Amino acid sequence: MAEEKLSENMEDYLEVILALAGNKGVARVGAIAGKMDVKSPSVNAALKGLSERGLVEHEKYGYVTLTQKGQGIAAEVQEKHDVLFRFLTEVLMLDPKVAGDEACSIEHAIGRETFARLVTFIGFLEAPSSGKRSELLKKFQEHLKAASSGKARAGLTMLELNNAEVFTVKRVTIAREIGKRLADMGFVQGATGRVVRSALWGDPIQVKICGYDVAIRRSEAAGIEIERMV
Q1: What is the largest CA-CA distance in the chain?
Q2: For the sheet containing 224-229, what is the strand order?
Q3: Considering its fold, how many domains does the chain have in total?
Q4: Residue 38 is part of a domain; what is its CATH number?
Q5: Which residues, other chains included, contact 190 with Cβ-Cβ below 8 Å and sequence gap of 6+?
Q6: What CATH number does the domain containing 199 carry?
Q7: pLDDT tens digits, 176-216
Q8: Which phi and psi (to 5°) does residue 61 adopt?
Q9: Looking at 73, 90, 110, which one is the last position of a domain?
Q10: Over the stretch 46-99, which tens digit does the pLDDT of each residue have?
């Protein structure tokens, strides 16, 4: 029978214990509680579950140590976090705070094969023979900066809305012919609408506006500036 997968919370505990243990190899329940922002009884409950899986050894309200198996899992989670953080900050140029939070989420979901390919991709970019690749990465990052700058000037667009979010159209900044078609669909200044379905990558985005159900392409949504309605 396959071993039951650890929950995100359990993996977080192992990662925290690994960080707190340091060179001493042990961590205290109180320190774990502080790092996890929970009470000591919650820590003891979690440690009980980890102990039953052979991942930690601990005395109630005392020292906690990782077993060899627990240390291996904790090190694997920490490695995922570190690589993801590097990729998000150094390649995608995200703010470190945002990158840290998102790395914490992705590290639990990313599969081994996907992670291995991400590591290979980063190594591919850093290889000594990667002159052209480095230049391509530089151009990509310049493009990111330009896009971020343009977005800051233009304001919020429909591309940044999630499913069920309600909005008011501020203006349409797109080619006249397409803009006229969008206006005929109801995308005029002051019109209120709601996102019905927004696919992460694909088209179209389905919207209900002025009482009608319409579908627009992502390229069109990028030219519709809006204001979120709470």
Answers
A1: 72
A2: 212-216, 205-209, 192-197, 166-172, 224-229
A3: 2
A4: 1.10.10.10
A5: 168, 169
A6: 2.30.30.90
A7: 777 888 888 899 989 999 999 876 555 688 999 988 889 88
A8: 60, 20
A9: 110
A10: 999 999 999 999 876 678 999 999 999 999 999 999 999 988 888 888 888 888
